Amino acid sequence: MKKSILIPTDFSENAWTALDYATKLYAKEECNFYFLNSYYFSNAQSRTFITSHFIASLKEASQRDLAALKIRADKDYSNPGHTFNIIISGDELLYAIKTSIEKYQIDMVIMGTKGATGVDKFFFGSNTVKTIQSIKSCPVMVVPDKKSFKAPEHIAFPTDFNRPYDLAVLKVLQDFAALHDAHINILHINVEKSLSDKQQKNVDLLKDVFKDQKHSFHWMPAYSTKAEIINDFIKELHVDVLAMFNYKHSIIENMTKEPIIKNIGYQPIIPFLIIHVDK
Length: 279
Known about the structure:
Elements: E1 3-8, H1 13-25, E2 31-38, H2 52-76, E3 82-89, H3 93-104, E4 108-112, H4 126-134, E5 140-143, E6 154-158, H5 167-178, E7 183-190, H6 197-209, E8 215-221, H7 226-237, E9 241-246, H8 251-255, H9 260-263, E10 272-276
């Protein structure tokens, strides 16, 4: 069955980096890629003098740029298993993403960390933060600016072992790792002296679920912020993708809160896979 991948774009270089990563990540899979652009006042500095003519010009520019993007993608990423499609929307971007996910049965959203208006002091752009926080129906992958593609060989999966794991959610991680036969590195930061019975039960579940896949468990002391420890782990093990579950009070929730996002110390140095957990 063909995968359906949604790539929101504002035609920035960071958005192209996400497109490049997506096509190479799924090079061996049959995929429909959907390039989504929202012209919802995307280039407007002020709403004071918005006219129907102005909106029409935004829509026309979006159509033109999406068509050009599709032509470029067809040329640069010729793959008989890949089809490129365009989606133009006058809705606010987050709503356009949610609508597209439902309409086109999207399996994953892949986007850049920042858009054309990104400010260097912010690790994530506002649209990226909103998407991470709000999209619950499929995984979201965030690709850092100017990150060249490297087939994932090692995936870091930080967890505190405190929550029971939904097998369907774990399967998302398993399927992602299987794309390039990646090794799943399960990271636990030791904030306690020993694991509780509940935690040990969840460790045993992970061992059973991943028994047929390459995986290992790693223990790191709590010597700094979790974000800094995760980044150190990424560098130490040459990790290619960071995968995390997003749920209430998770690390991701803290990472994407303002103003913490400016000070938390987590700068995405590798692609970041966010898998939402309902419970």
